[in-house]
Amino acid sequence: MLRQYELVERVKEYDPDADEAMLNRAYVYTVQKHGTQTRASGDPYFSHPVEVAGLMTDLKLDQETIATALLHDTVEDTLATIEDIEKNFGSDVARLVDGVTKLSKIEQMPENERAAENLRKFLLAMSEDIRVLLVKLGDRLHNMRTLNFIKNPEKRQRIARETMDIYAPLAERVGMYEYMREMQMLAFEQLEPEAFETINQRLDHIRQEDGGQVDAIALDMKHALAEAGLQVEVSGREKHPYSIWRKMAERHVSFEQVTDIMAFRIITENEADCYRALGILHTTWQFLPGRFKDYISTPKTNGYRSLHTSLIYGKSMRVEVQIRTRDMHQTNEFGLAAHWAYKQADKPDGQVGWLRDLIEIVDASHDPEELLEHTRMAIYQDRIFAFTPKGALFQLPKGSTAVDFAFAVHTDLGGATVGAKINGRHMPLRTQLNNGDVVEILKGKNTEPQMSWLGFVVTGKARAAIRRAVRLKERAEIAEIGQKLYDEIATRVPAKIGKKALREAVKRLEMEDDEELFYAIGSANIGDRDVMEALVPGCTESLGEDDAEWLRSGKSISIRGLTAGVGFQLAECCHPVPGDRIVGLRKPNEGVEVHTIDCHQLASGIDHDWLDLSWGKRSRGAVGRLRVTLYDRPGTLADMAGIFAKNVVNVKSLEQVQLDHPFTTYEVDLEVQDLAHVTRILSALRASDSVAQAERA
């Protein structure tokens, strides 16, 4: 553990103007506050914040960050408060400490909710000052180094999983690859102990057998480059166990089949020498097509710059090579932290594009599961490059589609998407993008994100935005149904109801506004009688529970203009279409389910609030289901398809439900206009020699 004077000397080495007195106060404060607390390892608790501060000095971070590292656990684990920190160390340090500190008073929450709320607070603080993330990464790295001292295996697994899913990818996103690799290695050891041990044993065996082969290959490369007049540094290493295990999992191969276990790094004097070195390597050894990546001309979003290539050394050995300058190497290993040196005036504010995306996700996520899911997606590591027609570059996770690209460009563009051109060709929105694709998004007017997009989008930003838009539309349409029901309820009270009575009712029901009341009515979270009583207190006292006076006025509620699947659900049991006589079942928290009046399920005594519904004038479009029995002979299925085509109807699904020679029965879901359309189709089917029977299912 660093002593007080050693820590201060480290900071003074790269920042002679640092406030030595503040650093000394912070060191003493954390020692005093943590007092006799100990860690699972038995070490004094204050050794942890001191070690985290040491990690921050390795990154040459400013004095406020060092003080934050020393104080980051005092508010969470001692009696100290944020106000105490601000009084003793200033508002900047207090703000940073608050950002790193987990939320208190949420211990009664389920584990996933607690994790999500702490993550939400952390991400918001990180968006205001990226130093919050740097301290948090140092905190997590030191905790992972001492994780084996925790006795509870479930807790070790949970911390390791959180590190692998959240913190290692965050380290990668800000270019701190050294932190990322060590976190992944330590988490992998906990999550897959058998695989970790097996791969390490294999690597030990290779080291014993290769007889210094890594050094020999590095020396060959250095000689080849020196003969061409390039002075470089060459170092080699084996890939770490997690990297090998991940490659085995992705390629579905065994350890023996992973041929590129060795990786070499070449450090040049300048950028031009990087490309010269690449040319020399490619002319000296055979390179593997498709494995070359130029991150110098096209850096990663985290600022990473390097040339990557793979060579065949000797007869069959595949090796990976990274070529970069010394400045690139410093940035690549420590990323954003490398820009926080004390002498740089133009320090980054953390408001980079991917971080803004995370904040959008925080705003859009509805519950803890969504937040955790979307955040993991947003910081996913494996990425591809795609371009707009004007050449703007966007990096996306592998598997991303045109819709993911649209949301990456802008949330509004994603919501307005109706089509896409990929490399100049019209392609389906679910088409997965490849490296280098040029994507043109086609916009529409008055368009909205579709729920079906959730079946193929992969980015957290897109999923969060789609779910939020669907939720808002659903809430608006349920509130619209609720407003119609409210108007009907208002006719049953013994007074004329105006805006004033509505405002008073909202207050009595302790709701925020009219919309909340309408939504509660539409979603069956409040009964008619309660609404009547709120409008005119005492008006229901003389009514019995079954009194027809307040049950319903008999006026039907129109669902015209509302969206099936959003404002209401069309029942799967009877598949109502416009023109059918319909009723609605209003279920708490589920909205309205629409049935035909003769649906057999309505006769089963379902205990829900019934609504008299109507389609409204000119309502068009629904999915109708037919049950068609064909003669079991060649050509009858084609005849049925021809009838559908002549009647201008799309087939949504076709399923064979019964084979009883000489008959075959199918259930067919059709996109129809209305009841008259269904009737015409049935008449045409019944007139066909290929059809034995046709009816609505």
TrEMBL record:
TM regions (residue ranges): none
Source organism superkingdom: Bacteria
InterPro entries: ACT-like_dom_sf, ACT_dom, Beta-grasp_dom_sf, HD/PDEase_dom, HD_domain, NT_sf, RelA/Spo_fam, RelA/SpoT_AH_RIS
EC number, as in UniProt: 2.7.6.5
UniProt catalytic activity: GTP + ATP = guanosine 3'-diphosphate 5'-triphosphate + AMP
Record domain HD: where: 45-144
Domain (ACT) ranges: 625-697
Ranges of residues in domain TGS: 382-443
Alphabetized CDD domains for the sequence: ACT_RelA-SpoT, HDc, NT_Rel-Spo_like, TGS_RSH
Enzyme class: transferase
Record PROSITE patterns: ACT (PS51671), HD (PS51831), TGS (PS51880)
Family label: Belongs to the relA/spoT family.
Physiological role: In eubacteria ppGpp (guanosine 3'-diphosphate 5'-diphosphate) is a mediator of the stringent response that coordinates a variety of cellular activities in response to changes in nutritional abundance.
Name listed for the protein in its UniProt record: GTP pyrophosphokinase rsh
Organism: Qipengyuania psychrotolerans
